Amino acid sequence: MESGRITREWLEGLDPAEFQEISAMLSDIQRERANTRRQKLERRRSAAREKSHNRRYLELERVKCGKKGCKKCASGERHGPYWYLYRPKENGPGRTSEYVGKVLPETLAEEFDIPEDQRPSN
Question: Per the structure, how many domains does the chain have?
Fold first, then answer.
């Protein structure tokens, strides 16, 4: 799309019905894109869970950063995806997680047999 094609002035020139229609379309597109990202992430998580070793498994997660002024978190988006390694707690029920990073180390990728095409490229 040509830069500057849609301007604030153009939007302000729309009648209220047109503006509302465009706004609804944008909301639909944002929701669809978020659902697509969520589904893709869930497929990666499922593949990682299926390859658990010794009750340990890897998951890709999107997380909130916790910073007060974060616009991304405030808009409902999350940061990531980041890899986390889950394992049973040593003393008691439940599990504990360990942050691995945005890029999966080759040793863990080999251990859990995660193909390169199922790893995020960031």
Answer: 1
